[in-house]
Amino acid sequence: MRVFWAILWKDVRQEWRRRELVVVMAVFSLVVLVMFSFALGIRPDRPTEVAAAVMWIAITFAGTLGLNRSLALERDDQCLRALLLSPADRSWIYLAKTVGNLLFLLIVEAVIVPLTFVLFNLDVPEHPGWVGFVCFLGSFGFVSVGTLLAGMATATRMRDWLLPLLLFPIQVPVLISAVRATALLLAARPLEDVSLWLALLGAFDLVFLALCIIAFEHVVEE
Amino acid sequence: MNGRTSRLWIAGTMLVIGGLVSSLYLIFIRTGLEETLGFSQKIFYFHVPCAWVTYLAFAVSGIASVAYLVRSSPRWDRIAHASLEVGTVFTTLVLVTGPLWAKPAWGVYWVWDARLTTTLILWLIEIAYLLLRVFVEEPGKAAKYCAVMGLLGVIDLPIIHYSVVLWRGIHPDPVVISRKGFGAGLPSEFLLTLMVSLATFTLLYVMLVGVRYRLEVVRERVNLLRQRALER
Hints:
Chain A has nine helices and no strands. Chain A is an all-alpha fold. The mean pLDDT of chain A is about 90. Chain B has one domain. Helices cover about 80% and strands about 0% of the residues of chain B. The interface between A and B is medium-sized, with 30 and 29 residues.
C-alpha cells in the first residue's frame, strides 16, 4: 500500500512541478472540440447526441496522449525496471499509475466538459452530479485498460504509435455507454434510462480492472 | 515430421479437397435456388462457415493465450498465434462476403447491426494483435504481450456484442440453431449443403493452423541456428 501512495505522490509532484502533461492534454482536447465544431458546421440545433460524442472523442484522444507519456516516462531512464527490482507488489505499481492517469484525465475533463457546454450551447444539465459520475466511470474504464496497454505499447519499436490501435477496439463498450449515458443526461431524460448504461460501464470497469491487475505482472516481467 | 503425422497430413488434405469439391457441387448443382433471394443466397454457404471459423479461431486463440500465461510453454503461444492469424483471414472473408450479399438483399453494403459491428471490431482487435506481434522485438515478450491482448479480446467480445446490441439492434435471425429447434428455419436440402460446407471449412481451419504452427517451429529453429552460427 505504501508503494501505491509513493508512486502516486511522485507522479502528482512531478506533474505539479512541470505542468506539462495536463496542459497539453487540455489544449489538445480543446483543439479536437473546435475542429469537430468546424467539421460539423454551424447549425442552430446542436443535438445533445453530437455534443456527447464529440466530448468523448476529445477525452479519448487527450487520454491516449496522457497514457503514452505517463508510461514512456517510466520506460525512459529505466525507471520502470528500478520499480520492478524493488520488492514492491506489482499490482500496487499498476494501480498507482492507473489512479495517477485517472487523476490527470479528470482534471482535463473538468476543463473540457464545461467548454463543451459553452461551445455547443447546451443548458446546464438537470443532474450535473450524474454527468460527473459518468465521466468518472468512463475515464476509469479507459484508463485502467489504457495503462496496461500503454505499458505494452511503449516497449515496442513503434512506441506511442501503437496504443490507439490496441486500445480503441477494446474500449468500444466504454465509448458506446459513456456517450449514450452523457447524451441522455444532457437531454434531461429520466435517470432510469441512464441506469442501464451506467451498469454496463460499471461492469466493464470491474471486469477489466481485475483482468488488468492480473495481466500487468506478465506485461512488466523481464 | 514422422510417418504417422505425414499420413495424417495427407489424409486431412485429401478430405479438405474432397469436401470443397462436394460443397461446390452441392451449392451450385444439387441445391435449388432460394425463393425470394435467388442466386445471391448461395454466398450463405460460404459466409456462415467463415463466420463460424472466425469465432472458433478467436476462442481457440483466447484459450491458448490463457494457457500460455499460466504455463508459459511456447506451444500454447504458437497455437494462439496460428489460430488468430488463420482466423483473421476468415474474418476478412466474412466481412467481404457479407456486404456482397447485403447489397442485393438489403439494398445496402453495410448496416451497423450488432453482429456486423461486433465482427468488424473483432477484425480490428485481430489486426492490432498481429501488429503487436510484429513490433515487439524480443520473441518472449511478444508472446506475453499477445497473450494478454488475446485474453482481453476474448473477454471483451461478449461485452462489445452486448453493448452494440443495446446501441442498435436487421441481420437475419439465426436460422440453423433457433428457438424453433435445430435446423427448423431451413429446408433440409439447404441444411445438408450448409453442414457439408461447415465441416469442410472447420477442417480447412484445423489444417491451416497446423501448417502455420509448423512454420513457426521451423522459423524458431532457423533463428536459433542463425544465432549459433553468428556466435561462432
